[in-house]
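Bug: token stream looks shifted between consecutive jobs. Job 1:
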Amino acid sequence: MEDAKFAKSVWGKEPTFDNSKTKELLQIPFRDMRGSIQAMADTLIETGYIKDQRKKKGGEKKEEEK
């Protein structure tokens, strides 16, 4: 029931994230969301948690997947 209440509370809302206070306090740059997700996916592939399903140019699968 708790899951349903939570789902109802966030349904249709656009998530937003604000790291301005963290950037100001720590004085460090952050990656953008796309870069973070790409780095995570690359790491999951490199460590073997997921298979590399990307295709090489020309539509062929990468050599490891043949």
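Job 2, same session, no restart:
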Amino acid sequence: MRRKLRKSRIANQAKRKVRAMRADLNAWQKDMRGTMGDIGEATREARDAVGGAMERFENWGQDNLPGVADAVKSQPFRACAISLGAGALIGALLLR
């Protein structure tokens, strides 16, 4: 009889623990859904911001391309030296 009571108590404790774990898992799933929604929203905002910046940069490049082309044609060695220096500077910054 004592064994049955003890087994029953152990079974009840196990059931309570399983219920608590399920409740914790459900709460975690709810939190993760909210987090994923927030990440999706932040991604959309970042994509929109980058898209606008890229469009402005593209327009700026198209507007300034003829002037740069003329400068390279008139002073090709200076243009090469400037681009080599800029490449070395960017490379040094990226290696840090």
